[in-house]
Amino acid sequence: MAISGLLRCGEVAIRVFDLDEARHHYGKCIGLIESYEGDDDKIYYKCPDEHDQYSIVLRKDDKPGIDYFAFKTLKDEDLEVYEKGLGEFGIECNWIEAGVYPKSGRRLAFTLPTGHEMHIYAHKEQVGNGMATLNPGTIPDEGYIRGMRTVRVDHLLVGGPNIDQNREIFEKVFDYKVSEQLISHEDGSRLAIFMSGSNKPHDIAFILQPEEGRFHHVSFLLDSVNDLYHAADLIGKYNIPVDVPPNRHGVTRGATIYFFDPSGNRNEVFTGGYVHYPDTPTLTWDTTELGRATFSHDNLPRESFLNVLT
Amino acid sequence: MAISGLLRCGEVAIRVFDLDEARHHYGKCIGLIESYEGDDDKIYYKCPDEHDQYSIVLRKDDKPGIDYFAFKTLKDEDLEVYEKGLGEFGIECNWIEAGVYPKSGRRLAFTLPTGHEMHIYAHKEQVGNGMATLNPGTIPDEGYIRGMRTVRVDHLLVGGPNIDQNREIFEKVFDYKVSEQLISHEDGSRLAIFMSGSNKPHDIAFILQPEEGRFHHVSFLLDSVNDLYHAADLIGKYNIPVDVPPNRHGVTRGATIYFFDPSGNRNEVFTGGYVHYPDTPTLTWDTTELGRATFSHDNLPRESFLNVLT
Amino acid sequence: MAISGLLRCGEVAIRVFDLDEARHHYGKCIGLIESYEGDDDKIYYKCPDEHDQYSIVLRKDDKPGIDYFAFKTLKDEDLEVYEKGLGEFGIECNWIEAGVYPKSGRRLAFTLPTGHEMHIYAHKEQVGNGMATLNPGTIPDEGYIRGMRTVRVDHLLVGGPNIDQNREIFEKVFDYKVSEQLISHEDGSRLAIFMSGSNKPHDIAFILQPEEGRFHHVSFLLDSVNDLYHAADLIGKYNIPVDVPPNRHGVTRGATIYFFDPSGNRNEVFTGGYVHYPDTPTLTWDTTELGRATFSHDNLPRESFLNVLT
Amino acid sequence: MAISGLLRCGEVAIRVFDLDEARHHYGKCIGLIESYEGDDDKIYYKCPDEHDQYSIVLRKDDKPGIDYFAFKTLKDEDLEVYEKGLGEFGIECNWIEAGVYPKSGRRLAFTLPTGHEMHIYAHKEQVGNGMATLNPGTIPDEGYIRGMRTVRVDHLLVGGPNIDQNREIFEKVFDYKVSEQLISHEDGSRLAIFMSGSNKPHDIAFILQPEEGRFHHVSFLLDSVNDLYHAADLIGKYNIPVDVPPNRHGVTRGATIYFFDPSGNRNEVFTGGYVHYPDTPTLTWDTTELGRATFSHDNLPRESFLNVLT
């Protein structure tokens, strides 16, 4: 009890066209820390306030999008529980041995009804957040926090069909809650589902899309609206293609900027949002308020935001 | 010396269709303080941290835009100096007696080459900022600062032909400096001129427009990017039509939101920007960087921002 | 799994000398919302972004301190599990029927080894956070958030002997984790223990004190350092006795202000702090860094902070 | 008119015991930019958003304090005007040729009634703020802004006898205004005088002290309360001796931290404060509110703040 089971999205494996360009974007501009050296076609990153070895994996490919995403669970024995639970939904799981993914324990791998490959693991080596565990102080050495001053990977949004089945799996197998949902005002069907297993307003979200396995965005947590503005200044400075400049989501009440990596994958920087608990009432938005639900500063839905995925 | 002469834009007289709607917008939503009761067809407002009796005058009319704007000068005898200086530019002045504008000393009134009526006055009664002058403390009573938490009127942008002549008058007669300018990269001609007589990056700006006497926006100063986000939250809540949601100007480096009053007049809330001195180098932007000059978070020029005036 | 069991400190029952004075402090100055009318000798408050009927109960008495604190758990059947778990530690529980505490389900009540009365309940009526659950928007009506702009009750710090036994109970019975601890550098004994069952760096903390049942402080969450400064401005304006003006804790990395209610009970406003997970390494501070652990802006331990409790 | 004459405190010459220690403090911790290489016993710094070659000069000596401070005036011919004006107060001036102070035009040097050596100059070479003057963008390259993220030198506070004579000279010769003053509630005599020649609430302040030529502090402007907290985090990290951790002044309403360089000279980081104009009413604080006037978050006067000068 307390927090147990699926803790967070601990790894997103993104495909990029060119590693040098990607390193400029994720390393220099965003300021992620290259934290592991592996295969030549991959770059491993962590955010400054994450303890685990890496949370973002870039892989060179000729098609953008994600290979998989992985959640960390609290205990290794959770994996068998999940295998069984997923089986009851007809989801077949594969076991990946420890070490296949660097510094990682064994993994349970499976495909969600939306067509996404998801992993679950309980162990990844920890390299710390730049501060000691004995008398750590409050701020790492200058330069450790850089670029957009990200804190950690916050959440993931993916698109595909069958999002209601994903929801059911996350509710029943992982005990996640629907914090918010966007429904059609015509037939009440769910168009987007936001799910939380933590005090964050969402850990993962699903958006209805005809095509399977689509990637909408990975989101990096920032400390404050000031840091969000600082990130926006860098985005402009580096001529990073912007999807949506600073705004606030109706859903989650988080302050946000959306932009694209050089391969067209969407990134978000995010701050704020309310404190979520499993007894927080689920919030529902219908499509009459699509603008307010997505971008509440001008209540204007963005076509690209809704329809561009990789 | 030190700061003398034209201190600031101390009064903007805006035409609105409907006073009740305008009162909802400027009073409730923006949070201006109704600070004088005059004619039935007018509303007088001040911002919380202004000392003078009023700075915004709304007048009911069937055409939006501004009637005039007025600058406060330090000394009453400045007016004769300005009358003479303006005369050298062929500008004819009228004298308006004290009291014609409520609580105001005598005024010099004239029309700028861009077709705008401008007043200069040295006296207006002061009603204070909600705090005493003896042992004032740092924050007024709860409710005095409300709505968008404006601090004061910051600056004004107006459009018309002959902006270079306006510039020359502000330089020669008022000793204002061009802090920044936007020029055509083709012929070097000035398309927008930003002028400062203070430590603010601009007190008034002129944008080239074919038609005379146009009003682009009046800007209200906020304390922080946090208050800018708070203002944006209210703008969304009250369904205020937005021109440009939170962004940062290249010109002035100020953080900004543009929105419209119910009559279509543009308002801005603004925070930040650099400290300007008369020895600060003039910054020039050319039209190859029109996007960055206007909205530096996505370097995207907005058609409406450039072309909608009242 | 996910978040389950003890969710948060949902209720703190504080004794105050005078209800009118207390109402001025908690209602007007802090800005809590009086959300239930009960007995004449009690005031019930909630913070603006809490959904439950109340979270702070003031009771008129001639001795300050707390009567009890209460945690909300996710499911009513958790209570039997806890009764059993507590029994294994020799803790005897009493059952309190639903409705004895207004709008509350049944409760398990018991005394911790530190001498504090603790309740656990699964149900309390919800009155919402001032916004709808269908198309809620992002900001409630003006005036709903007021005073110090608190978001919610964040955590509680209490003092007594046997804090290691409290720790063991929270670890074993409630699955809470020690996020941080302060130990004597001489003998390694724990002087303060910070425990989290959530993504917050602490939900409750225990400080070693010779006397049982002491109250150190209740903490209110704020949104930003800007709001912390705004709270400090109000604290100064209202001449509220201050224990420690704005600073940052080493422990939790949260920004903080400590002050006292008119009866001498300590309050905190708090913002920031890291995102905690059960796999976050426990941080240890020893008494050679007592200053940095408590107040990291000047690394100066405060005598009053360590020793004044009610 | 507009802003003319004495623009700002453009140079403070501080004595330090050890240049390496001082370089660690002012360069690494505060983040000033070493911007000129001169004599072996001096270090020249500028803040990131200043254009002039340097604003802080450190000189190795065995006694802390300041050698002199220098104001920049708008025009070289102002110097003769000031020489005459100062002469009327019986102040004798010396002329220092251009180039004696590196990259500086000729200077007028004199001693104020408080015993401080003051210079006035109109020219200093400009090296810019890390951004171009054509299409500058809004943020310099990463690393240009570092340490405490200072913007510029904001103001200076010095102590000595005869502060009323200093005031008269600044009023009559330089047209500066008393923005605020602290008076004895017993006899109305001025104990501290805050003077502004700009839109800042003060450019220089004088505090009554029996000994001549004392230095209270030099203040560095920051962008936001967030940056103030970041500065405080670094102050704690680097174990910089703190005089007063984050608070807000009653006088000026600026947010502040005071700390000491390794030689005992006091530094301030400062943000906020109101927009000042020459028609802003002078604010007066009397000694019954000495706490609120100095540190308004807890209304507590600090002995060290009032009495420690170098």
Low-confidence stretches of chain A: none
The first-level CATH class name of the largest domain in chain A: Alpha Beta
* Helical content band of chain A: 10-25%
Radius of gyration of chain A: 18 Å
User: Helix count of chain A?
Assistant: 6
When the domains of chain A are counted, the total is 2
CATH domain fold name of the largest domain in chain A: 2,3-Dihydroxybiphenyl 1,2-Dioxygenase, domain 1
**Average residue-wise pLDDT of chain A:** 97
Oligomer: homotetramer
Strand order of the largest sheet of chain A: 15-16-17-14-10-13-12-11-18
Q: Which architecture name of the largest domain in chain A does CATH use? A: Roll
Distance between the termini of chain A: 37 Å
Protein chain pair with the most extensive contact, residues per chain: A-C, 58 and 58 residues
Please outline the major beta sheet of chain A.
9 strands, mixed
Give me the CATH superfamily of the largest domain in chain A: 2,3-Dihydroxybiphenyl 1,2-Dioxygenase, domain 1
What would you say about this model in short?
The first copy, chain A, has 310 residues and is of the alpha/beta class.
Q: How would you portray this structure in words?
A:
The structure is a homotetramer of 310-residue chains. The first copy, chain A, has 310 residues and is of the alpha/beta class. Chain A has two domains: 116 residues, 2,3-Dihydroxybiphenyl 1,2-Dioxygenase, domain 1, CATH 3.10.180.10; 156 residues, 2,3-Dihydroxybiphenyl 1,2-Dioxygenase, domain 1, CATH 3.10.180.10. In chain A, the strands form two sheets. In chain A, strands 15-16-17-14-10-13-12-11-18 form a nine-stranded mixed sheet. In chain A, strands 3-4-5-2-6-9-8-7 form an eight-stranded mixed sheet, with helices on one face. In chain A, a hairpin with a 7-residue loop joins strand 12 and strand 13. Chain A is globular. The first copy, chain A, starts with a strand and ends with a helix. Chains A and C meet through strand 1, strand 2 and strand 18 of A and strand 1, strand 2 and strand 18 of C.
